[in-house]
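Quick entry between incubations.
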Amino acid sequence: MTNEIQNLLYGKKLLLDEMPFSIQELDRLCQNGLIEMAQGIVQSEIKRPWGKQTIHRCRRCGNTDQRLFHSYRCEKCHQDCTYCRKCFNMGVVKSCSKLVTWVGPPPKFLEYKMPICEWTGHLSPRQAQASEGLTKALMSYEDYLIWAVCGAGKTELLFPAIEKLLQDGRIMAIATPRTDVVRELYPRLNKAFPRVRMSAHYSGSQDTQDSSSLVLTTTHQLLRFYRYFDHIIIDEIDAFPFHHDAMLHYAVHQACRLKSSRAYLSATPPDDLKTPFLKNRLQGTRIPIRFHGHPLPVPKCIWIGNWKRGLKKSRLPSSFLKWLIKTSQLNCPIFIFVPSVTILKNLFHALKEQVDLSMDHVHAEDPNRHEKITCFRQGKTQALVTTTILERGVTVSRSRVAIFGSEDAIFDEAALVQMAGRAGRSLEDPKGEVVFFHYGKTLEMMKAINHIKSMNREGGF
Amino acid sequence: MSLCLWCQSIYAHPLDFRHLFSVSNQVGYCPQCLVKLEQIPAHQSCRLCGRDLTKLDAIYIKDGTCLDCKKWEEGPSHGLLEKNYALYSYNDFMKEIMSAFKFRGDVLLAEGFKPIVQMLYKRVIKESSLTWFEKARYLFFYQMGWQFKEYPYVIVPLPLSQKRLKERGYNQSVVLAELLQQRIIPAIRRSEDGGKQSKKGRAERLNTIQNPFRLDSDYTDAIYGQCVLLIDDIYTTGTTLRLAAAALKVAKPKHVISLTLCHG
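Done. Structure below.
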């Protein structure tokens, strides 16, 4: 019994209500000092010029935004009880709920001495170099940044590094903000490391073994861990929602052991990583070429005038139509990115009327989203009008990319670079084409173009 | 500027004088979330259960009521529940909100419905059998937020069983009833637990024989000869509310009506 609890609770921070064990058993362990129970919400008072103010803090997600707390009369503890609305999707944390952690000795982890990686591909010299650098840095507990262009093969270069670190007895996590990525990556990793004990955590996941050495997780699920990992590798560090959400940074921070290090993977690192890297305060490598060795397609800018006004009357800019018809004759899939859902619908209806093409539209709340994307991948639909949800993680060979209304504030440098990265990813058609359809160039557009150009320059083109 | 209760995006309230001069941080839903809720139009709802008749085929409607209500009226529980008022249709978005509010413990979600629930309560008063003077006086007091010693309706939220209340920590009907900011009379008790109503099928619900509700004898006087307004979260078949009304019948209320957040 104690062993089971140890396995479940080691390195975790779980709600007492979620535990499958009896309270008496847990109480006994608590008195023996093997587990620790802490209040879910802590209260503190600070002095303000206008008087005292009570500040709540959530012990699980570290939330201190007072707008995201609410108190009500609780019938469980017969007091005014506060709960955190930030992380309540993972089970509500209230003042009267307890968070349980294991503080006793750690359980036994499996040891891996033999070669465990069964991945047989090979790395390009650039990838190999990055992989070596990563292993070295993580071995000596230092942070590392891999700044690789879209389609450089970031995942593959992790494999050798993971193997070496696991053989050294390290416990690692690969975290990413997106559930889709976890789902896609898990079978690949399972194939590469068949003998390693690993688990995948995402909301609604079943396959959650305890005390595994390699954990694949979404950044949200990291909140369940507490001082468990030696290393966390964060993929797509700049992706929504990680970029803006302090909670997720907190999640990463508290899931690491005291002595630990992190690795960041991105095509467009945010400024707080980019600057230290460029000033040599953060170790890292840049991979400016794709695995097929061709340069990134540089976006073209085409001015389309006041498209919003035209769209209201269902009129489409002529240069956009011309491009679309010309490209559709090449018989290759076309991504059309738009800034918002309302524009998506208007544009889709206008296109449907005026262009004879098989097309579809997709946005984040579309229930048939996955089927539509599969259709597009298989080539059943030729053009896909989409919001920024498809800006990363989707690979369609021979695709062309149009960004309609690229001057919109929602498209920042990272988003534009990522969307441009959808084009020319396969070996058969390494060139691709990216066009920004705009009504006035913005700084972000220019930054994105310069980013791509500088990457190409560094790659020797 | 407020945070939306559901999607936590920042949105602006439409500017009016009340907001211009107040510093209160109102909570609510953003316009994008509000359009996903389907409000039931008052003049096109079923006379008895408050269902949205525009979503029903014409063959199921007979002089302003749906056939379900017709059946109730012909059956033995005729006249137990005079009328039900409902605010929203129970669509997929509402289902998500209700599951978060009821089962996952996000109590604040109810607060976003406060203005609209209060509006519905005013409609209830307006359609009541009071004289115009009493109505006007009460509504004025209500609008000003003053307490009034004579209430036109005794507000009774539907109870949870003790076990469920311990488990959940709050009663969602009480939370909804508190939005009205009137005196609440917890006159009914739920004695024994017959399983969750939301886990049962339609036939099972309609065939509930044993009444899980009973009247709390302390409140017999408060109910006697009064109009009672029952508050619940959802009206599905109407069985629960009618059972509660049957339990109240011992205390001889004048009549019983009900107010629910959703219908479906």
